[in-house]
Write a structure and sequence with these properties.
- The protein is an alpha+beta fold.
- The protein has a single domain, classed as Alpha-Beta Plaits (2-Layer Sandwich).
- Helices cover 30% and strands 34% of the residues.
- It contains three helices and four strands, in the order βαββααβ.
- The chain has a four-stranded antiparallel sheet with strand order 2-3-1-4, with helices on one face.
Length: 77
C-alpha cells in the first residue's frame, strides 16, 4: 500500500480578478499543487503543496507577483 503524500497549506491573497489565472497556472503542474478558492471577492486562495515543492511554488508566484497583485503568502497549519 502506498503512503499518502503529506501536504503543506499556503494562504495566498491577490487581486480578485487574477484568481482564475493563478489556478490555471498551478493546475498545469500535475499533482504538485491543489489550489482552491476561499473567497473570490477577497482574492483568497488556499494552495495545497506536496512537501518539498514549496520552493517551486514561491518561484512561480514570485515570477507572476506583479501581474496578480500578490498581497501575501503564508503557511497555514
Amino acid at each position: 500500500m502506498k503512503e499518502a503524500l503529506a501536504l503543506k497549506h499556503y494562504l495566498v491573497k491577490m487581486s480578485p480578478e487574477q484568481v482564475y489565472f493563478v489556478k490555471f497556472i498551478l493546475e498545469a503542474y500535475d499533482n504538485l499543487f491543489l489550489p482552491s478558492t476561499l473567497d473570490q471577492t477577497a482574492g483568497a486562495v488556499i494552495i495545497r503543496v506536496v512537501y518539498g515543492e514549496d520552493t517551486l511554488l514561491k518561484e512561480i508566484l514570485e515570477s507572476i507577483s506583479e501581474r496578480i497583485g500578490l498581497e501575501c503568502m503564508e503557511e497555514v497549519v
